[in-house]
Design goal:
It contains one helix and seven strands. With about 110 residues, the protein is an alpha+beta fold. The chain has one domain. It has a four-stranded antiparallel β-sheet with strand order 1-7-3-4. Strands 2-6-5 form a three-stranded antiparallel β-sheet, with no helix packed on it. It starts with a strand and ends with a helix.
């Protein structure tokens, strides 16, 4: 399961509140981490012309009025660290694993 946010474009260059910030950006309510897979559909079609900085998606072009964007986040479990008998366990690895599990559980709960 994944979390999907849907944004319907209201073309207004002066609007600066979520989810639109200006005319070519979407604001998410979460920060995109390295273990997230983000996919976007524009009016039901795959959309690949975007970049992500933190919780802001920068679109490659200016949406037209009425465009619908579906942003889907899925957590990739392959980023989890494996622990083996006799190996050292670092706090950063435990914390990262916990964050990945927490994000995946959120997706399963909301999906």
């Amino acid at each position: 399961m994944a979390i999907t946010n849907t944004f319907t474009t209201i073309y207004d260059r002066t609007q600066a509140t979520p989810p639109w910030h200006g005319t070519d950006r979407l604001l998410l309510d979460y920060v995109v981490e390295k273990f997230h897979i983000i996919t976007i559909k524009r009016n039901g079609q795959p959309y690949t012309d975007f970049s992500i900085y933190g919780s802001v998606i920068h679109l490659g072009d200016i949406p037209q009025e009425g465009d619908v964007f579906e942003v889907t986040r899925e957590t990739d479990l392959s980023f989890m660290t494996s622990f083996f008998p006799g190996s050292s366990i670092r706090a950063i690895d435990l914390n990262t694993n916990f964050e990945i599990i927490k994000e995946k559980l959120t997706e399963l709960e909301n999906g």
